[in-house]
Amino acid sequence: MLENRLFPQLANDSNDYIFQQDGSPPHFHSNVRGLLTLVLPQRWIARAAVEDAPIFWWPPRSLVITPCDFFLWGYVKDVVNVETINRTVETITPEMLQRVWQEFDYRINGCRVTKGAYIEAL
Questions:
Q1: Which of 53, 62, 84, 95 is the most interior residue, by most CB within 10 Å?
Q2: What are the sequence ranges of the domains in the chain?
Q3: Which pTM value belongs to this model?
């Protein structure tokens, strides 16, 4: 999937991004980590091993730096009984997304400061 879908799309975009994936066991396979290190050195965040080259290591058992986990699902859950999920997602404003990115930056900085250690819910 990375080679066939993601990397071709990223090749067409600017280099102003950092690739992030969670700590799911398939994402930790040495082939996946090796490919990320080869194609995106110092441009990925994930569960990693000592020999890998992520920009920093994913905090163990932590969802605090995944925007869908710390923002989107809670927002949708609060509104889903009133409207359909698609309608709810359409109500997200640019201002809300700006706050999400600010919060994301805060959480990333927390990971940087703790050097990837476990972070309690922020």
A1: 62
A2: 2-57, 67-113
A3: 0.50
Question: What residue type is 97 in one-letter code?
Answer: L
Name the H helices within the chain.
7-12, 30-39, 67, 73-79, 85-90, 94-113
d(CA 119, CA 122): 8
For the stretch 73-116, pLDDT in tens is: 888 887 766 667 778 888 999 999 999 999 988 888 888 888 77
Burial class (CB in 10 A: 0-12, 13-18, 19+), 34: middle
Instruction: Yes or no: say if 118 and 62 are a contact pair by the CB < 8 Å rule.
Output: yes
CB 21 within 8 A of CB 41: no
